[in-house]
């Protein structure tokens, strides 16, 4: 299980880290990638003391860097008195072992750092199970010959989660634990699916809030529903899914579900472990895509979100893109999203533009509904309750012969009311 010493470890003296990336010809500039890796390292509790980029045609299969650059890195580790080196690419077990031997310090890759952050931030039992499963799968191939290395690490980044003791066990024991975790998570998935079926039965639409990590998804949910979710200006501040009911101005109820943030090079193990959580977006009726408009890399991050959604085979959902943090944007900027039905500009923190967001969301919800304009006899008052619960009630007026109702309702409800009134609407 996830150890309780996380907070103690995070409060210890910060490790001095050097960040390293290989700039391949077909890759984007390594600068933004290293800035993001620096944020990840700082979130994990490290102090970044230096960075290094090597332009190279291909990554060295044995040591990640070329021999000359590796010697330069070894001297940099000594001069900066670094405690660890973090690479922007995922390392093979052999690369990690060779680098640690050459540099004589702990070596982590981007995946290891992200897993460490997830281990520190998981709060619910499901989140902890998912993190442990991802870490064990990731470390399974790294167990051979690492007993000494793991004992030498002693603490800090990369050692949170299952803990050194568990990772020093033989492969069979780890595989047994992986099987146990998968069974426990299957129970969680079954419970989640029952909840989804119950929501579907009630006919209340669901919108999943998706976006790049730290775009402001939790802040938006808090602004709309007073959900009280932890919302900090750091990567992966919240991991656990939260669903809250929200009443739009037209009395249309909708369920809003926060999801874990996406990131470039999201580790495969995390996608596998958190698939049940990420699938909240797959089962939602609509997507609210939150983009940090104040970040110069917003367009790259927007594309990363869609690439991740495509990976999860989530392609046909109506999308409302919310350009957030507009209070931090200076000058005129042209914000577009060609995959969205509508876009709005807001500041969730300052609660600016929320009315426009509500109106845009209402319009998207109406697109899948029929306009109902009838007089319901008092004998059919139960239908009015359904309209209120499942549709957007525009007007209700009590008359002598019944209630005049104007609303946007799901097609299925429209047909049932039409049939019960024996009237061609």
Task: Annotate the secondary structure layout.
Layout (H helix, E strand, L loop, with lengths): L5 H6 L3 E9 L6 H14 L2 E10 L11 H14 L3 E4 L5 H11 L2 E4 H12 L3 H16 L6 H7 L10 H4 L3 H32 L3 E6 L5 H9 L16 E6 L5 E6 L9 H6 L1 H9 L2 E7 L5 H14 L7 E6 L17 E4 L8 H13 L2 E8 L4 H10 L1 E7 L4 E8 H11 L4
Parallel strand pairs: 1-2, 1-3, 3-4, 5-7, 5-8, 8-9, 9-10
Antiparallel strand pairs: 6-7, 11-13, 12-13
Which terms would index this structure?
16 helices, 425 residues, alpha/beta, 4-stranded parallel sheet, 13 strands, 6-stranded mixed sheet
What does this protein structure show overall?
The protein has 425 residues and is α/β, with parallel strands linked by helices. It contains 16 helices and 13 strands. The protein has helices at 6-11, 30-43, 67-80, 93-103, 110-121, 125-140, 147-153, 164-167, 171-202, 217-225, 268-273, 275-283, 298-311, 354-366, 381-390, 411-421; strands at 15-23, 46-55, 84-87, 106-109, 206-211, 242-247, 253-258, 286-292, 319-324, 342-345, 369-376, 392-398, 403-410. The strands form 3 sheets. Strands 6-7-5-8-9-10 form a 6-stranded mixed sheet, with helices on both faces. A 4-stranded parallel sheet has the order 2-1-3-4, sandwiched between helices. A 3-stranded antiparallel sheet has the order 11-13-12. β12 and β13 form a beta hairpin. α6 (125-140) packs antiparallel against α9 (171-202). It is elongated, with a radius of gyration of 26 Å. The model is unreliable at 1-8 and 147-154 (pLDDT under 50).
